[in-house]
UniProtKB/TrEMBL annotation, chains A, B:
PANTHER family, alphabetized: HTH-TYPE TRANSCRIPTIONAL REPRESSOR GLAR, TRANSCRIPTIONAL REGULATOR, GNTR FAMILY
Protein name per its UniProtKB record: GntR family transcriptional regulator
Species of origin: Bradyrhizobium campsiandrae
Taxonomy, superkingdom: Bacteria
InterPro entries linked to this entry: GntR_C, TF_FadR/GntR_C, Tscrpt_reg_HTH_GntR, WH-like_DNA-bd_sf, WH_DNA-bd_sf
All residue ranges annotated as the HTH gntR-type domain in the record: 11-78
Record-linked PROSITE patterns: HTH_GNTR (PS50949)
Keywords from the named record: DNA-binding, Transcription, Transcription regulation
Amino acid sequence: MTAASPLPVPSTQASHVYDRLREDLLSGRLAPSRKLQMRFLTETYQTGQTPLREALNRLTADGLVEVREQRGFYVKDVSRAELAELTKTRCWVEALALRESMAASTPAWEEQLVLAQHRLSRVPRSLSATEFEDNPEWERLHRIYHRTLIGHCGSQSLIAFCGQLADQLYRYRRLSISKAFPSRHVGDEHAAIMEAVLSGNADLAVKLLTAHYQRTADVILQDEAIFPELRDKAEQT
Amino acid sequence: MTAASPLPVPSTQASHVYDRLREDLLSGRLAPSRKLQMRFLTETYQTGQTPLREALNRLTADGLVEVREQRGFYVKDVSRAELAELTKTRCWVEALALRESMAASTPAWEEQLVLAQHRLSRVPRSLSATEFEDNPEWERLHRIYHRTLIGHCGSQSLIAFCGQLADQLYRYRRLSISKAFPSRHVGDEHAAIMEAVLSGNADLAVKLLTAHYQRTADVILQDEAIFPELRDKAEQT
DNA sequence: ATTTCAAAAAATGTATAAATTTATGTTGCA
DNA sequence: TGCAACATAAATTTATACATTTTTTGAAAT
């Protein structure tokens, strides 16, 4: 509906650093629980403290950074408990948003969804055929697809909240090096959810969507690369 | 369960300004859509720009302040549409959280709820008997009561989101000078919700809770003091 | 009436100073 | 000799003062 913003681009340094920091946090280049020292940040991102503080405060609100009074900023830590809780919450809230979107369904929205699903299906999940290599374009379209599913619920704040949960969980996905993903036919799952929505079967759509999220979480929860305690526990047994 | 924080108090200026600004925003002393100029803020709150920027950024995340790139901070504007949307969202999300809280019910939680309701019932809604005068202690206990209702759902992020919605809606209540409130026996409504929870009747509890929120919104939606367009429309008719 | 240009006001960013926390090393005591 | 407590020093966060850039405002000219 709306094209890419024709606005002259914000252009403030704070926004630039915010974008760069955010990318580095989501990708895992800035490791969980790492301390974010001003010294390091100013040198790395070549900017002053004011824009950095601004960016860090915004990221704190996004749940990607943690601030401890008078002892600095830290990359938000990860844990199996948090992953489970975030997933649970996302399932609850997106189920709600999806039902409301469907209850207020319009042809225009259904067409948006068809388009989003189609575009996503035409882009490869991985850049490399032999090994898994994150495809930014796929991630972008994936994001739009899920945003569209809940986007017709009629609540900006609810949509924004879902976006935050999505970001936080996206970081877990990126941190997890699990190559099991490609074996899942996520494309089929997206198509199935769309079909349930188009057929007006809310219960089924919600069931498929939550299963979709839960499966992803289950894989990551078993990843020793991100949760070393799993390895320790296995050795004890 | 946990008493007042025994921590040595944050004590950074940014936190102090944040608290003061927040109070002034919620109370309406800083009027909606007013521009928040640094000059004015530094003089009013007697502090530098760095702590102020920090506070303003946090308040932006709370939805009480709006930031427009390169043209400063503004008190978030109010509108009938936003009030309706916030209320709708709050009903949806708290219904969800309440159901989950009840599904995971424990004696300890039920006792917490009984206590919260009891304490709230023992404090007068208004400081003055003749005219309505906001009682901070009642507001505090009211907040705790509603927080308790949803507090056992098992999701910190969901609780935090409900808190944000509550704050934003609280500002509408404070902005509205409607004296119609005292005529409502809100105390009875709180007691009825609690009883429905204790009896395990989730559908009833949710119905009472959402009706509670909706009634409040309906009163404010008709308040000409906060929405002048109502007066204009009436004159046209 | 509209546009252009210049002056001002205000937001953003840098550099420096103050206050607080963390780390280090020494002294006193068991 | 080992350990704990205290005082000191280093590092880091927080805050202030100053400089730069952008936006807004207002007047003059087309």
